[in-house]
Write a structure and sequence with these properties.
It holds the Pfam family EAL. Keywords: Membrane, Transmembrane, Transmembrane helix. InterPro entries: Biofilm_reg_signaling (IPR052155), EAL_dom (IPR001633), EAL_sf (IPR035919), GGDEF_dom (IPR000160), Nucleotide_cyclase (IPR029787), Rev_trsase/Diguanyl_cyclase (IPR043128). Residues 360-613 form the EAL domain. The chain is of the alpha/beta class. The chain has three domains: 12-177, no CATH class; 204-350, Reverse transcriptase/Diguanylate cyclase domain (Alpha-Beta Plaits, 2-Layer Sandwich), CATH 3.30.70.270; 360-612, EAL domain (TIM Barrel, Alpha-Beta Barrel). It is 58% helix and 15% strand. The chain contains 23 helices and 16 strands. Helix 12 links the parallel strand 6 and strand 7 (346-348). Helix 16 (464-475) runs parallel beside helix 18. The longest helix is centred in the first third of the chain and has 51 residues, at 144-194.
Length: 618
């Protein structure tokens, strides 16, 4: 706080107090003029008139002039009354210390010193000049000792008052500075609490508070949740410092797209939430198009040029949907739908998705219960050798008999099991049950190879080879009678980790099969790299084989390729005798499909293994 030589009046409270003191002094002088004797009344009336300019200065906020004029006017008023009355013996002389105290608190050092000197000289003059000789006999002479004492009293009083006032003002200054520091610290803490340090955008709680304020004002709002596509490779390949700079650049582009009163916040990681004021959907869609275009522009960080895209989900507030967190969840769901739709796009939340979410949550709960209560069972799809018609293997397929919904297909619950992590325990249970059943067939003289499908999730733990080896040791099934099927996409993901585990699995004697060949990458490199024993051609090439020359050429090429690599070929989804005949002519080794049998229970499969049926097929 600046301290000039003028009035110490910088706060509104001090200025208000000065106004009050001026009015009190003016009214006191006016009342004194009415109640005093003739000479004093004239003098006080003159003093009241001299005080009028003070009010003009107050009106123009010239507080220093008003304060200085007030102090001198009061000093002159008291001095005049002393002259008109009993001089130095008049009780009014006690007003001098009061004026000095006021000056010490609210005046600068120059004005204060001038007042002290004036009062001291005036009092000395009253004591030495014989202006009131007519009263000497009544009052008595003033001695020099009295004058010296009076001067010392004024000097000591003035010095003490000034020092106390200076300490008081210093304390006020320190308190004012400390209060200002506290306020600044509070603002800094509040800013940090409301602002993301990396991007400078608002925090989630602040965005929620603003949303609630606007919703109470009946403002139409849209929650836009944005997630950067493929941002993880930026952090993994270029480092988190570069990734942080990219996020800061993205935040800058988001700010440019905001209209007044709208807000953007970092939701976490590479997710951002925008709270937009909107009354026109078409205008909002135009803004979202501009948003996606802006984010696709290259971001220059150090020596790198990084180009990104984003998937965006949108949810609108309404009379029934006005909870910020719920709207964010709805926008988040729409965002993931946008990712599934191909990324770099936006989708609006649809109410029917909520029912799907509810159904999915119930399915997850029921699936956990199904695992505990053993509602799951295995069915087996027979596999036949085309040259002899002999049943030479089965594929184990998981089935769920839901107590309310009946049979639930694996296409519905297997993805749920993978998302929730249940696939690990579920997959191990399938391997164990399939091996136990295969042991029974083996002990009955039917050495059928049982195939079990693997999920990519089962490779993540790195413990699959040990788990399979433990199951084989527990059940006593020969390793060559167990075949593990995996898709081409699984070979592409996390190649080193998968290859290492496949090598360990092959070391146990387990067979490996590549399932759904032709629908994935169909990369010859992976056929040679992973030493599979079997290649299964997807049914999408088989169903129309008898009527599609193109499919015939493709299947024939796959069979020849697989044989050249020493692989056994199995065709999936055979339903027509003509198709089976064509596959036999193409020298396909085995096939499975509804032409022979649908997936059946273990008990039903025993019927297919009766000596009569086996003899018929042979």
């Amino acid at each position: 706080m600046a301290h000039q030589s003028g009035v110490y009046l910088h706060s509104q409270r001090q200025q208000q107090r000065l106004r009050q003191v001026i009015w009190v002094c003016f009214l006191s002088v006016a009342c004194g003029a009415l109640l005093s004797g003739p000479r004093s009344a004239v003098w006080l009336t003159l003093v009241a008139a001299l005080m009028l300019p003070v009010f003009l200065w107050l009106k123009s906020d010239a507080y220093e002039k008003a304060n200085s004029w007030l102090l001198w006017t009061l000093t002159i008023a008291i001095s005049g009354l002393l002259l008109l009355n009993k001089g130095i013996h008049d009780p009014l002389i006690i007003c001098y210390p009061m004026i000095l105290m006021f000056a010490a608190l609210f005046a600068g050092p120059r004005l204060y010193l001038s007042l002290v000197v004036f009062m001291l000289l005036f009092c000395c003059s009253l004591a030495t000049v014989d202006w009131w000789q007519q009263n000497l006999t009544a009052i008595g002479p003033v001695r020099w000792q009295t004058i010296i004492t009076l001067a010392m009293l004024f000097a000591v009083c003035g010095f003490a008052v000034r020092m106390v006032a200076q300490d008081f003002r210093t304390l006020l200054n320190e308190l004012s500075d400390e209060n200002q520091r506290v306020q600044e610290s509070h603002q800094t803490i509040l800013h940090l609490a409301q602002t993301d340090r990396l991007t400078g955008l608002a925090q989630r709680d602040f965005a929620r508070q603003r949303f609630e304020q606007w919703h109470q004002q009946k403002v139409d709002l849209a929650i836009v949740l944005l997630d950067l596509d493929q941002f993880k490779p930026v952090n993994d390949s270029l480092g988190h410092s570069v990734g942080d700079q990219v996020l800061a650049a993205v935040a800058g582009r988001l700010r440019q797209l905001l209209q007044p009163d709208e807000i953007a916040c970092r939701f976490g990681g590479d997710e951002f939430v925008l709270v937009l004021c909107t009354v026109d959907e078409s205008a909002l869609f135009g803004r979202l198009d501009n948003l996606l275009s802006s984010l696709q522009q290259p971001i220059l960080v150090e020596e790198y040029s990084i180009q990104l895209s984003a998937s965006v989900g949108v949810a609108f507030s309404s009379a029934t949907q006005h909870d910020f967190n719920q709207l964010c969840r709805m926008a988040d769901q729409a965002m993931y739908k946008a990712k599934d739709a191909g990324r770099n796009t936006y989708l609006l939340y649809k109410q029917e998705w909520q029912q799907h979410q509810t159904d999915t949550l119930k399915l997850i709960t029921d699936l956990r219960q199904a695992v505990r209560e053993q509602q799951l069972e295995l069915h087996y799809q027979p596999k036949y050798e085309l040259s002899s018609g002999r049943l030479n293997g089965v594929e184990a397929l998981l089935r769920w008999r839901h107590p309310e919904l009946g049979w639930v297909g694996p296409q519905h619950f297997i993805p749920v099991a993978e998302e929730t992590g249940l696939i690990d325990s579920l997959g191990l249970w399938v391997i164990r049950q399939a091996c136990l059943q295969a042991v029974q067939w083996h002990q009955a003289g039917q050495s059928l190879v049982v195939a079990v499908n693997l999920s990519a999730r089962q490779f993540r733990s790195g413990q699959l080879p040990e788990q399979v080896a433990a199951v084989l040791a527990e059940t006593g099934l020969p390793a060559e009678l167990l075949e593990l099927e995996l898709t081409e996409s699984m070979l592409m993901d996390e190649q080193y980790q998968v290859q290492q585990q496949l090598t360990q699995l092959m070391a146990t004697g387990v067979k490996l099969a590549i399932d759904d060949f032709g629908t994935g990458y169909s990369n010859l490199h992976y056929l040679s790299k992973f030493q599979a024993a079997t290649l299964k051609i997807d049914q999408s090439f088989i169903l129309q084989l008898n009527s599609s020359i193109r499919d015939q050429a493709l299947v024939s090429g796959m069979i020849q390729l697989a044989h050249s690599l020493g692989l056994v070929v199995v065709a999936e989804g055979v339903e027509l005798p003509e198709v089976a005949s064509l596959l036999s002519q193409m020298q396909c080794d085995s096939a499975q499909g509804y032409l022979w049998s649908k997936p059946v229970t273990a008990e039903q499969l025993w019927q297919l293994l009766t000596p009569e049926l086996i003899e018929k097929h042979s």
